[in-house]
Design goal:
Layout (H helix, E strand, L loop, with lengths): L2 H17 L1 H38 L2 E5 L5 H12 L4 E7 L1 H11 L2 H10 L8 E6 L5 H9 L4 E5 L2 H42 L2 H9 L4 H37 L1 H6 L8 H31 L4 H5 L1
Antiparallel strand pairs: 1-3, 1-4, 2-3
């Protein structure tokens, strides 16, 4: 196919979008609606995942140190913890700081009583360890128990296991929901495109009857499918963005009362735009090619039926 032919067929693809604007509009609306459903479901699951991640960060392991441990041993112990792997953060909590925090939670009279009874601090030094991956929580706790100068370890193993189970469940549900929505989208889109191609079967038959090759006939439809996919992806992203911001505004008071914060849509906008356009182009081009096959095989038979 020559360069002039490509330019001509590309122009034909753009012209077809406008000439058949009602069917083009229908295809865009259907595809955009499907993308909005997929995008909305994705944002819901991303927010749930963000909430779980925030809860996981609070599920720390407190490693209490033996009283006779020296400063140099404390520093060495910190290095050992960091070298274990699966450690996101290590924070040293001195017994003085921990005791003051305890006093701050008490009433004034109660705090004064404890400080008057004894000047000794009844708490040990500790390391506040944040685990990176809860899937290896048990292994990490066992490794921490094996370190020198460890007195006791306080951890919430049951919560960690529940969080892992919830995250796995959410991941499976999100994949299934998005996959089902995508299959439904493909089914609806293919039927919409089938109607579009059927309404232009005479045009295809005429092109075939004058000797046009299958690729020559297909190319304008491929360009048309790409245009419809790009438009649908961009419009779908804008609609999902608007609905998401509206939902955040409507539930702002509820989120604030629960001390929750919704994720920013802008962090995922470019990725979602790329995926939307990709899905739109694949559906538009793929649906056109698959649906056209039956008409291309008829040569020019449709002319005799008109």
């Amino acid at each position: 196919m020559t360069g002039s032919s490509l330019r001509y067929l590309t122009k034909e693809g753009f012209r077809n979008v406008w000439t058949n604007r009602m069917m083009s509009l229908a295809s865009i609306c259907v595809l955009m609606s499907c993308l909005v459903l997929i995008g909305s479901a994705a944002m819901v699951f991303l927010n749930i995942d963000s909430l779980l991640a925030r809860i996981e960060e609070e599920n720390v392991v407190m490693v209490y140190v033996q009283d006779e441990t020296t400063d140099s041993q404390l520093e060495e112990m910190k290095n050992q913890i960091n070298s274990l792997g699966n450690i996101k953060e290590v924070e040293f909590v001195s017994k003085e700081k921990a005791w003051q925090e305890q006093l701050d939670t008490m009433g004034e009279a109660e705090a004064e009583f404890f400080t008057d009874v004894s000047s000794d601090i009844p708490l040990p030094d500790a390391y506040k360890v944040t685990v990176d991956n809860l899937d290896y929580f048990d292994k990490t706790v066992d490794e921490l128990n094996g370190l020198d100068h460890v007195d006791i370890i306080r951890e919430n193993r049951d919560l960690a296991q529940r969080l892992v189970a919830i995250r796995q469940g959410i991941s499976i549900i999100s994949i299934v929901v998005v996959a089902v929505l995508l299959l439904i989208s493909l089914f609806i889109i293919s039927n919409t495109i089938r109607l579009t191609v059927y309404s232009r079967r005479l045009e295809i038959s005429i092109m075939k009857s004058v000797g046009a090759t299958n690729n020559f006939v297909r190319f304008p439809f491929v360009i048309e499918g790409m245009i419809l996919g790009i438009f649908s992806g961009a419009l779908g992203l804008g609609l999902v963005w608007g609905l998401y911001e509206l939902a955040i505004k409507q539930f702002a008071d509820l989120l604030a009362s629960l001390n929750l914060k919704a994720i920013s849509f802008t962090d995922y906008a470019l990725v979602m735009l790329g995926l939307f356009i990709l899905i739109g182009v694949v559906c538009g081009v793929g649906g056109s090619l698959v649906t056209m096959r039956k008409y291309l095989n008829k040569e020019g038979s449709e002319i005799s039926d008109v």
